[in-house]
Amino acid sequence: MTLSYYTVIILLLAGTIRVATPLILSALAGLFSERSGVVALGLEGMMLGAAFGSAAASAIYGSAWIGLLVGVSVSVLIAAVLSFACVFKKGNQVVAAIALNITISGLAPTLALAWFNQGNQTPGLTNSAQRFLEITLPWAKVSRTHPFPGLIYSELISGHSVIVYLAALLVPLSAFILYKTRFGLRVRAVGENPHALDSAGISVKKIRTQAVLISGVLSGVAGTYLATAAGAGFIPDMTAGKGYLALAALIFGNWKPYRALGACLLFAFTDTVATRLQGVPLPLIGIIPVQFIIALPYLMTVILLAGFVARPEPPKAIGVPYEKEN
Questions:
Q1: Which of 12, 38, 243, 315 could form a disulfide with 44 if both were Cys (CB 3.0 to 4.6 A apart)?
Q2: DSSP H helical ranges for 200-286
Q3: For all residues of the chain together, what is the average pLDDT?
Q4: How far apart are CA 9 and CA 223, in angstroms?
Q5: For position 64, which CATH number holds?
C-alpha cells in the first residue's frame, strides 16, 4: 500500500528536523563567534572532535550523558586553542581554523585506531544508555490512528532525541542573549567596532574569547548529536562538511538567528529529499546517480548563496585582529 502524499510530507518534514539539528547548533555556534569578529571556519573541526570524544567516552563509560560532557569539553578545548591563536596571538583566523580542521580530521581517526583498534572508528554504540534515543511523548502512539492532526504530533513533535528539543530551545535563547542582554550587546559591538568597546573600558579579548568558547559549547553538542543520536559511533569525516554548510546557512541568514534557522531547515530539507530520491526512478530522467544525490545539498548551497545573498552584511570587524590604540 502506497503512502499518501500527506504522510510522505510529514515524514519528509520529520526527517528534515533531524537532519537540521546539527546544522542549527553549528550555525548558532558560528553566530556567536562571527558576531564577535572571529571567523567561524573552525566549526567543522570542533564538531568532528566532539563527535569522536563523545563516541569514545560513551563507548568506554556506557553513558550518553558522559559522552555529551566529554564531547563538549573536547570542542571547547579546540575553541580555546583557536581563541588563543586568533584573539591573543592575532594570527590569521582563516589559516588557524583550517589548520585545526585538518589536524582534527587526522588526529581523531588515529586515536580511534590506537585506542579501539577497529579501523579508525569507535565501537558501535549498541546499548540504549550509550545513545540519545528518540523520546516518545505522551499519547503519541494513540494519535497515529488519527492522521490529522495526530500524525503531526506523533511524527513532527514526538519521536526526537533530547538534543533536537534542546536545539529548538536554543534558537530563541540565542536571539534573546544577542539582542536583549548586556553580554549580547557587547558581542555585537565588538564585532562592529572593537575600538569603541575598548574605549569604554571593556576588554575586547575577553568578549571575543567568551564568544568563541560559547561557539565551542554549541559545536560540541552538534558533534555529540552526530555520534550518539543520529549515528551510533564515530567514523572518519562523519561531519561531511556540515560545519561549512552551517556557516553558509549563517551567511544566507545574514548573521541573524531566525534567518539562519530557516536556511538550515532549507538545506536539511534538500538533503532529506535527496536521500529519499536514491534509487527512485523519475519520469523522463530515470534513476538519478548517487553521486549527484550526495552533491545536491552542497549544490543548493552554492546556488542560494550566489543568487540570493548578493549583498551580505557581515560584522564590520570580522576577521580583523584587534590592535589596541596607544
A1: 243
A2: 204-225, 242-252, 257-277
A3: 88
A4: 28
A5: 1.10.3470
Distance from C-alpha of 34 to C-alpha of 101, rounded to nearest angstrom: 17
In this structure, the dihedral spanned by the alpha carbons of residues 251, 220, 257 and 250, taken in order and rounded to 10 degrees, is: 10
Domain count, the chain: 1
Residue 319 lies in a domain: no
Query: Across-strand partners of 160?
Result: 135
Domain assignment of residue 321, yes or no: no
Which cell numbers in the block locate residue 65? 550523558
Domain assignment present for residue 248? The answer is: yes
Domain of 167 in residue numbering reads as: 5-308
State the first-to-last Cα distance of the chain, in angstroms, to the nearest integer.
75
Helices marked H in 84-192: 93-116, 140-143, 147-151, 162-180, 182-192
Q: Does residue 75 form part of some domain? A: yes
Map grid coordinates 590604540 to a residue.
325
In 3D space, the residue among 117, 134, 136, 135 whose CA is nearest the CA of residue 59 turns out to be 117
- DSSP of 37-71, one letter per residue? T---TTHHHHHHHHHHHHHHHHHHHS-HHHHHHHH
pLDDT tens for each residue of 33-64: 999 999 999 999 999 999 999 999 999 999 99
CA dist., res. 40 & res. 215, Å (int): 8
